[in-house]
Amino acid sequence: MRCPYCNGDNTQVKDSRPTEENAAIRRRRVCEDCGGRFTTFERIQLREIVVVKRSGRRVPFDREKLSRSVEVALRKRPIQSERVDRLVSGLVRQLESMGEQDVPSSVIGELVMEALKGLDPVAYVRFASVYRHFREAADFQEVLGEIAGRVEPAQEAGTATPSQSGAEAAGRKH
Ligand SMILES: [Zn+2]
Predict the structure, then answer these.
(1) Cβ-Cβ contacts under 8 Å for 42 (sequence gap 6 or more)
(2) Rounded Cα distance, 58 and 49, in Å
(3) Parallel/antiparallel/unpaired status of strands 102-104 and 50-52
(4) How far apart are alpha carbons 49 and 38 in whole angstroms?
(5) 63-104 pLDDT per residue, tens
(6) 161 falls in which pLDDT band (50, 70, 90)?
(7) How far, CA to CA in Å, does 150 sit from each of 19, 85, 124, 173?
(8) Interatomic CA distance for residues 98 and 82, integer angstroms
(9) How far, in Å, from the CA of 72 to the mean position of ligand 1?
(10) Nearest to 128 by CA among 52, 56, 59, 72
């Protein structure tokens, strides 16, 4: 493994340990040329996935990028990092099991929204606002309505305002 700091080839594994509930191996590496330390992850990859952007551009699927966008949505939310890892792993497995090499970025966006909806309503709204390019308050109301709609069947229709049922939806996650 090439050193990311000096591009030297003399790097050594100092420590390997399972992580993400044994779904990955984390290796601490050190460069003998510059002393730089870095970490690599070994994960099972069932198949190669290519993301097709809105522009039509095709880029290799990047788990780290997906993970970062999920983490941004979950910033300062009371969700443990293991749960975030599980969510990301679950998303990757879903993508891999689709059986298609080319996956439109819109499909990935919808999967992330679906996963966040179940995990944390605030993160869901955050992600949706970026992903769907919200421009006005009505856009937020629509997505809040979707969250409210999720718990509606268990309630008397028409008695709860959207904001009340939204708060209830948030409370039920605990
Ligand atoms: Zn180095």
Answers:
(1) 24, 25, 27
(2) 10
(3) parallel
(4) 26
(5) 999 999 999 999 999 999 889 999 999 999 899 888 788 999
(6) very low
(7) 34, 25, 13, 12
(8) 24
(9) 30
(10) 72
Neighbours of ion ligand 1 (CB under 5 A): 3, 5-6, 8, 31, 33-34, 36
Backbone angles phi, psi at 8, to 5 degrees: -70, 155
Residue 166, both tokens: 């939204």
Measured in Å, residue 17 CA sits from the centre of ligand 1 at 22
Q: Ligand 1 centroid to 60 CA: how many Å?
A: 26
CA of 92 from ligand 1 middle (Å) equals 31
Model confidence pTM above 0.85? no
Radius of gyration of the CA atoms of the chain, in A: 20
- In angstroms, the CA 163 to CA 64 distance is 34
